[in-house]
Amino acid sequence: MMRSCTAALRTLRVLRCRLEGAFPAARHPVLARRWFSTEKVIPKDQALPNPSWSKDLRLLFDQFMKKCEDGSWERLPSYKNSKLVKEQLSQAQLFTRGYEDGLGFEYVMFYNDDEKRTVCLFQGGPYLQGVPGFLHGGAIATMIDATVGVCAAIPGGIVMTANLNINFKRPIPLCSVVVINSQLDKIEGRKLFLSCDVRSGVDEKILYSEATSLFIKLDPEKSLT
Ligand SMILES: CCCCCCCC(=O)SCCNC(=O)CCNC(=O)[C@H](O)C(C)(C)COP(=O)(O)OP(=O)(O)OC[C@H]1O[C@@H](n2cnc3c(N)ncnc32)[C@H](O)[C@@H]1OP(=O)(O)O
Q: Are the C-beta atoms of 97 and 163 separated by less than 8 Å?
């Protein structure tokens, strides 16, 4: 018994060294704690209201939850990527979910299967500042990519962004709420064409950005590297 425990620990140490060699990030104390801990991680659905959500974000969330009642729309929980990626990538997470509540990307997505549309309600926090007082363009691009990505991945399976074109028309005030509305326009073989706009939340009067994108369904015969 004692011998098998020692052997198991030795194997674990060897595996850990190999992992750290392959992925230097595994030496990071927080990751190491998560990856090598035996504690069960209880997934938290981050696409639900938290105290950092503004009144506008709550209002829009409630409106969309009402639309979900007849089954035409569906809220997409943030941890439940099973619809998109079959296997759970234990400790991996979208980088948009790496911030503490309210500081970075606060958002929830809703999907309409009949219309092949995804709507993202997004509040960009203070850590996403670009020009003082406004959201960084990269943060806007990230949320556009994530929203059209979901819109492509639900019908398309495992897809990657091949092309993303964005016209930034007006700067988005930091901590304001915007609605990212994306739709699948057409599918040609492995190519999925999508479009998207970003408007001010609640009234949708201000058009902040417009984008088009091309996603490619991965060919299982081809290696990514
Ligand atoms: C679900 C979570 C949401 C999060 C969303 C986040 C999504 C992301 O950020 S993904 C990360 C960023 N993207 C990447 O790193 C992708 C890097 N690129 C690649 O790996 C490859 O180019 C890849 C996989 C996109 C396509 O490669 P491959 O499968 O070999 O495609 P390939 O055979 O060359 O082309 C297929 C078709 O697409 C077309 N195509 C490929 N790339 C492009 C492009 N950039 N522009 C226009 N057409 C293109 C080809 O011309 C071809 O067309 P046709 O079938 O008519 O001849």
A: no
Residue whose CB lies within 8 A of the most ligand 1 atoms, among 143, 158, 160, 212, for a mutation test = 160
pLDDT tier for residue 111 given thresholds of 50, 70 and 90: very high
What is the atom index within ligand 1 of the atom nearest the CA of 81? 1
For the residues 21-26, what does the mean pLDDT come to? 42
pLDDT of residue 1: 45
Query: From the CB of 160, is ligand 1 less than 6 Å away?
Result: yes
Determine the atom of ligand 1 nearest the C-alpha atom of 215. 25
DSSP conformation letters of 56-107: HHHHHHHHHHHHHTTTSSEEE-SS-GGGT-SS--TT---GGG-S-TTTSEEE
What pLDDT digit, counting tens, does each position of 58-108 carry?
999 999 999 999 999 999 998 744 444 445 555 566 789 888 899 999 999
**152 contacts 192 by C-beta, under 8 angstroms:** yes
3-state helix, strand, coil in the chain (%, to 5): 35, 30, 35
Q: Annotated active-site positions, please? A: 145
Q: Is there an atom of ligand 1 within 6 Å of 145 CB? A: yes
Contacts (Cβ under 8 Å, ≥6 apart) of 148: 118, 161, 164, 182, 194, 196, 211, 213, 215
For residue 98 the two structure tokens come to: 């790496």
